[in-house]
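Two quick folds needed for the group meeting slides. Do the first one here.
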Amino acid sequence: MANRRPTLATTDPKCPITPKVDPSSSPLPLIGPNGGRRLQAEQIAAAYHAGLSASERRRVQSAFMKGQLRVVVATVAFGMGLDKADVRAVLHYNMPRSFEAYVQEIGRAGRDGETAWCHLFIDKEGSDRLELRRHIFADAADPFAITRLVRAVFPPCKCRELQRRRLDLQAGAEVSDQEMAAMMDAATSAGGGGDDVTGSRGGGVTSEEEDDDVMEVDDDVIEPEVEEGERQRVCYKHERAIAIERAVMEMDLREEAIETLLCYLELHPQRWVELLPHTYGVCTVKAYGGTRELRAARPQRQSSTSHTDRLTIAPQRPHSVLQADRLNSAPQRQPSEVQFDVVELSDRMGWELPSVKRELRGLRGSHDGSIQVCFSSLSFHIRSYGDLRHLELDAACSFLRQRLEDQQRGALRQLNQCHRAFHSVAFQGCDPQPTEEEEEERSLRLKALLRDYFETETHGGGGEEEEDEDEGLSDADAAHVRRSLRHFLSVHHGGRFTPRSLARIFHGIGSPCYPAEIYGRDRRFWRQLLHVGFNQLTKMAAQEIIALNGIP
């Protein structure tokens, strides 16, 4: 293991971190690694960050790897793929967010077994911790946003209703002609035309199981109580498409945050959701010849036995365009155009989505270009249940809220542990220069803290309840916060702000509905309440919004 000696110092306005050197005016030669020759400025240091072009980033990394560049000033992303054995020093200008991140970053130094130095500069006023803390809540979600996501993931289906009607038929109950026609129509849409009219497609219960496991009382299907997770569902799963752009704006969450919530649902013990690769969920078919040509459109028949050919020749089924027209709830924009949710269509008809899209694309080549087919609206593609009861939907919302809260508490705990540990071994300034014995003693203390942290199974959690992000506000500070919130609401009168969106703005956190490019221009509010805990600021914002709207 390389002899890495972490030393720390707080930033001091009276003591610059490093002296400023002007290579063009310095009387001393700048000795480089290649034979003591004087180095040019571009050979001493260079920047590496996302704002540079890809070619410039490759040039800087290549020069550093070849030893043609001595120093790289970069974000932590630069070191992720760095494999250079003779890195002699790693300097942190800010505090890392966790011990895991710190160890990974200083691990780039001294891989050749020689002594390497790791310096960390931290702010003794704690601004580093406040800056890192705001990133923890960047993807925080409102309970309302979580509820909207759960409703979009688990829309109700007709499988349970079809099951009840099937039991009526088996019991010999009288069914009207209208109910019979509606049942057959719904069965065709939900079940894919097979014999199983429940639409379960392999995951439902059989008629023998129904006799033992389901009984009917007052037209309601009641299932015997079983252990959670063991109950067989009437509904297997349905494929859904959730438009990404629309979901991002409606929930005010980044795409990555929504996908994380979907992954949490997929990892739930009940396996409520199965994530599939993203897909384009909307299909638009245009015919230059008008409605007549659109109704006559059909792809070239490939094989009467092929599965995909069911799109056009399946008995007693209208072909794809007419069926989509019937299922489409939105009005057509033009008589010669039809737009529909292709994922919903495929699921209702019991067809495979890739086969349906392939057949729809075949319309373009079979009519001399007079018909155009395009797919749009990139969407989350999932497979989920449609028969979840209200208690199960509430459980899904509670599960997501709990996961987010646990993640935030864990990140805060790690951040506070880092802050306390680094401050406990830090020098309070760089003047006078610490002796080598003092540096060695602090370095050993920091290594002991790191060793104790990673030897603890919970990595510092210890099952303890994490303290609030900040001590309680004084009356004067609380009054100042409330004045700032009221001032913002009066300036943006008529805006639809949630308590969490207000807390984000005052912490300098951009979001899809409240981007930093717009709200960050007004420095009266942007990042002005970083010293107030996010959750505490959210509660105070909720109180001011309620008071403004006159809600008792």
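Then this one, please, same format:
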Amino acid sequence: MDDVTAVNQANLNYAVPSNPYIDISTYQQNETSITLRLYVNYYVSHFILQFNGTETNISASYGLGYRYGYGWATVSSLTAGTRYTFTAFSVLENLRSSGVSIVAATVPLNTDSFRPSSQNETSITLQWNKVNNNTSFVLQFNGTETFISSPDGDGPVTHTVSSLTAGTRYTFTLFSVFENVRSSGVQLPAVTAPQNAKGFRSLRQDETSITLQWDPVNNNVSFILRYNGTELNVAAPTGNGPVTLTVPSLTAGSRYTFTLFSVFESIRSSGVSIAAVTAPENAEGFRASKQNETSITLQWNKVKNNTSFFLQFNDTETNISSPDGDGPVNYTVSSLTAGTRYTFTLFSVFENVRSSGVQLPAVTAPQNAEGFRSLRQDETSITLQWDPVNNNVSFIFRYNGTELNVAAPTGNGPVTLTVPSLTAGSRYTFILYHVFMNVRSSAVNITVATAPENTKGFRPSSQDETSITLQWNKVNNNTSFVLQFNGTETNISSPDGDGPVAHTVPSLTAGTRYTFTLFSVFENVRSSGVSIAAVTAPSNAKGFRPSAQNETSITLRWNKVNIHADFVLQFNGTETFISSPDGDGPVTHTVSSLTARTNYTFTLFSVFENIRSSGFSILAATGPNYVLSVNLRLRCRKTMSESEVEDALVELFRKYNLPPQFSVKIVSSKP
């Protein structure tokens, strides 16, 4: 209200002007009162304000030096947002003017529940409760005003403010408007949703976690990560560069959907989603189940039905589908090099994501040894020999249920191994494995027999002038024999029965020493052999006859056999040993102390190395002698010695059963 000073009516000179008027206007109002201004251009004593059937006297005031009057009337206890009619009268000495009316309204109530109901990156939808059907609204923000009509119906009012900037804070003021009168207004700060983060991706993963990464929006924007019904708050970054978050405690080989919201003043962006998977578990039981020289068969336990595998070795990679069924997975890697170490890495694969991988060193079987052979054997051992592959390969030698480890050779040349403590005359199967890093080759085997035992009791059982009969004990039914002498060999089969073996060697020379070597033979393997020396019986002496006799003695004569033969003269139950004489002439021996006119039988044995000939017997008598003279004239085709002539005569007389007790005088006659 203007500054006025009241003056005393008595001191004023007044007159009604030529154009008198009274005016009433609304000066101000609020929700429960209206202040009216009354004005006249002439002097009045007071005003009367009439409304709602009531009248109220309003004092008049005047400004100094002016000829007009003011009146101020504040009508309170009104209803907000209501239209009222006011009539003002000026009064002078109890006279009223005709009056003037004005319609004025109280300020409407501010709406309640003014709030943002939703927002996105470029708009905010505001909502508030309706005041009444007569109240419209003015929305003021960023220096602009928007008129919003009162909507039909009873529900809340919504209004969307568009073309905004993402992640920005705005202040909205909402006025209720009734008959162009605004409420005091209610303010609301609201923000647009921030932009979604860009570059939202899975950076890496393992069996129990996934690391996510995205580009920040700005340093005022934080984030919410939603997955599996849980939400993680991620603070706004303090620097530049991408944001990285590792989500722990996940299940291996599982698919997760992650939704990332940018958050500005608790308002989320629309969110961006990605699907990411944890790495599957590594396969268990990864091992080499078998191998040969050119391939390795790998085996591992299946992870689950949706997990395939990736096998990496030697800069190559192989995809292996998840097999049907529940058993282990088998895969054979072929075209490999024998005796070579390979490193295999097996990855489980789920939705193109690999596990950390499990490594397995495995080797191909080495090549079999070449030249595996029996070098020699005796009764208790067999010496084997083979050519090694290389110096990195050791050996396992198996026989009779036992295994021997043989170290890799240190030099060149064949490997030699003697197997001891074997049984004579037995058949053994030897299996040889090359071993490279505990992996065996496919094996090569040979069957070898130990030498049989030498036979026992090897001896000459009998002999004559042209043969020797040898005898020995049988070894067993599987053992045959080889008899070796004079550079010849004779195969002798194993006889039936259990008695000793006898073999006669014929066509020998009388009175000759022979060395016989007898080998036991089992599967073409000979024993070390046992040797004996045996001799044939010497020939009987030729020309055995009495050369002279008297009443008490008989002189015997015979031809020498050879320089090695002695003699035994047997008669009357006695034997006389007669050494081989020196020289080449006939042998003579006189048997004395005989009885006259008695016939004696003499048997002469040739003896060679204690072996007697078959013996030759003659009948001879002691004297007195008688003389028989025979003249013979003989013609010989060749020259004969006297002893040869005598021998021929002895044989002649013997042929005609004449006793040989005679002496012969031979006279050579030349024609």
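Slide caption for protein two: The first strand starts at residue 22 and ends at 29.
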